[in-house]
Amino acid sequence: MLPEKFSIATLQHLYASGSETPASVMQQIRLRIERDADNPIWIHTLTDEELAPYLDALSQKACSTHPLWGIPFAIKDNIDLAGIPTTAACPAFAYTPKRHATVVEALINAGAIPVGKTNLDQFATGLVGTRSPYGEVKNAYVPDYISGGSSSGSAVAIARGHVAFALGTDTAGSGRVPAALNHLVGVKPSRGLLSTAGVVPACRSLDCVSLFSHDLTDATLLLQLTQGFDAADIYSRHISLTHKLPDMPLIGVPRANQLEFFGNHEAQQLFGKTIASMHAKHVTLVEIDFAPFLEAAQLLYQGPWVAERWLVARDVMEQHPESMLQVTRSVIAKAKHFSAADSFSAQYQLAALRRSAETILAHVDAIITPTIGSPYTRAEIAAEPIRCNTELGYYTNFMNLLDLAALALPTSHFANGLPNGITLFADHGTDNTLLALAEQLSGDIR
Q1: Which residues fall within 8 angstroms of residue 96, CB to CB, at 6 or more apart?
Q2: Strands of 250-254's sheet in order across
Q3: What is the DSSP string of 69-109?
Q4: Is the CB of residue 41 less than 8 Å from the CB of residue 137?
């Protein structure tokens, strides 16, 4: 019997013992998807006919040489799976790709089984998980609360035991916010480390494919299997990953007056307990000036980078405006107000902020923040969608603009059972260091 939640190692053990097969696992997963039918997690799940080639191919692959043999995974529906429509949560935009996205192909080549395409905030524009014509994805733990976006369906699919891991994207926090709200590990890799070929852009120059898993072991394996330069992606980079972790890591924490919880005292207390628990570990905490990061965050939606979203959605907005949600249109329409001069001015400002951030990052091994300042109910998001979404990005919006790597980690729960989490981040190329640091801290952060 498949556990309610399962990791890659869990399935590998079940397969090795002979108690489960990929076909039997998929049957149980279908029942779970039916059980959760009132939660619009999936936009498309593979039919038996669509799934058959992937199951049949496993007979030609050895477990010993295919580290994801028989492991089911979810794909955010702005990432291509050959032969299956990609919608970006906008039916008028839908197309059917002939090829897999590069990261999807890498996972399938390693033996993984795609279960289907998951729901998302339309055109990956939002951190809430409610901006989809396919329905609002409910939190996996407390359904009245948001699941977090834009990779809402992918996060909830793994949290509800439909898959062992999932693919999302992360431009402004879309892989970290859902991880925090659904008790998952969320990897926001260095820009260009994972190919975005076959991914519908949000902000093409900033986009990252993100990874969701239950634990750090799976996250480390998935990052190893999906990373690498891809000439098909014009923003792919050759990145040498560092792994320099001293015996006594130095971790930066924003000054108290720069931490923001938006009036949520419980969230503030939980983060305080996490920081206090880290004193028991072999780390040194030091206050840092968070101002450059916060200033950079303001540029993402209030600056000209929103024009990149316009480039993707322009045809739909002009020819089929009724197919787009009003909140999505209002965010993307801001692009019309920026000039070429505004773009260069913002780039100069960002370069100055990057220089300030480099100075701070050079003196610490990582920085720790809450992943979100405060969670919100779906009703609160409906009442004030822009304000709440903006607040959810307080600790996330600056990451890709400043070219950083980040790792969202589950910690404690709120009194109502809703998960909470923290984020560790550092300069690009430190992805392995962050995973190692998280492993060192595991068991002591709560």
Answers
A1: 83, 84, 85, 86
A2: 42-45, 113-118, 72-76, 165-169, 209-213, 185-188, 404-413, 419-427, 366-370, 250-254, 284-288
A3: TT-EEEEETTB-BTTB-B-TT-GGG-B--SS--HHHHHHHH
A4: yes
d(CA 273, CA 170): 28
Catalytic residue among 76, 117, 138, 188: 76
DSSP lists the bridge partners of residue 288 as: 254
CB-based contact 75:166 (threshold 8 Å): yes
Q: Please say if 174 is a catalytic residue.
A: yes
Question: Is 236 labeled as catalytic in the residue annotation?
Answer: no
Residue 195 CB contacts under 8 Å (≥ 6 apart), including other chains: 101, 102, 103, 209, 228, 230, 232, 233, 236
Q: How far from the centroid of its chain's Cα atoms is residue 266's Cα?
A: 24
Residue of 132, 147, 150, 236 with catalytic role: 150
Bridge partners, 75 (sequence order): 117, 167
How far is Cα 270 from Cα 412, in angstroms, rounded to an integer? 7
Distance between CA 131 and CA 388 in Å, rounded? 13
Nearest to 73 by CA among 174, 221, 181, 195: 221
| Active-site hit among 152, 174, 195, 213 | 174
| Dihedral angle over CA of 159, 208, 343, 338, nearest 10 | -40
* Torsion-angle region of 194 (φ positive above 0: left; ψ -120 to 50: alpha; else: beta): beta
The answer to whether the CB of 395 falls within 8 A of the CB of 422 is: no
Could you report the average pLDDT of every consecutive run of 10 residues in the chain (446 residues)? Answer: 96 96 98 98 98 96 92 98 98 97 98 98 97 98 98 98 98 97 98 98 96 98 98 96 87 98 98 88 91 95 85 86 87 85 93 98 97 98 96 98 98 97 98 95 70
pLDDT score at 446: 62
Overall pTM surpassing 0.70 (yes/no)? yes
pLDDT value for 191: 98
Is 345 one of the annotated active-site residues of the chain? no
Question: Which domains are delineated in the chain?
Answer: 1-446 (3.90.1300.10)
